[in-house]
Specification:
With 191 residues, the chain is mainly alpha-helical. Helix content is 62%, strand content 0%. It contains six helices and no strands.
């Protein structure tokens, strides 16, 4: 049983190492890619089986999110990260199937911990990416934001509120039934 556990942890650790290496390579190329994309970015997307956004979707994503001048579109980065995560998840199930036979709590806990880290990967790494490509706030922008967010008291009700993306801050366009952000792909409504 000890040998089986050691084999399981070794295989899952190797998968996780390869995952982080792949994700690091993806994010590095994404940071170097202009918003319009490059042949290298499109080739990377194709290598993991992800289609680049069409022209209409790309224009909508660019209008929706913050103004940025470097980095691939966050929604495309999300699609690539999700595909890599799903591939590693599938491979990890093959590795972890023998752990189902193991009765040890340690093996099950290790597999569950690995799966939790996989589940959190896309959101945490995409948030890091969005933060990295966001333009730095200028003093003028800070004061404009402070002025815009100052409470204004009126006799009327406040009306409806705009839902913004938790990851990138893009607004959800009015009169739409969008469930995910067009800019980064984050769900507006978590289950």
């Amino acid at each position: 049983m000890v040998d089986e556990m050691a084999d399981l942890t070794e295989k899952l650790d190797a998968l996780e190492h390869k995952l982080h290496s792949s994700v690091g390579d993806v994010l590095e190329l994404a940071r170097q890619t202009p918003p319009a994309g490059t042949p290298a970015w499109i080739a990377l997307m194709a290598s993991v089986g992800v289609e680049p956004l069409g022209l209409r979707q790309r224009e909508q994503a660019l209008r929706t999110g913050f103004q940025f001048h470097r980095g691939a579109l966050p929604v495309e980065v999300r699609m690539v990260l999700e595909r890599i995560r799903d591939d590693v998840s599938t491979r990890s199930r093959t590795v972890a199937e023998p752990a189902d036979v193991l009765t040890g709590e340690t093996a099950r806990a290790y597999v569950e911990s690995f799966q939790r880290r996989l589940d959190e990967l896309v959101e945490t790494r995409l948030q890091d990416y969005v933060d990295a490509i966001k333009p730095a706030a200028s003093v003028n922008a800070i004061f404009a934001n402070a002025l815009a967010s100052t409470k204004k008291f009126t006799a009327e009700g406040s009306g409806s509120q705009t839902k913004t993306c938790d990851c990138c801050g893009a607004g959800r366009p009015a009169d739409t039934d969008l469930r995910t952000c067009a800019f980064c792909g984050t769900p507006f409504f978590r289950q």
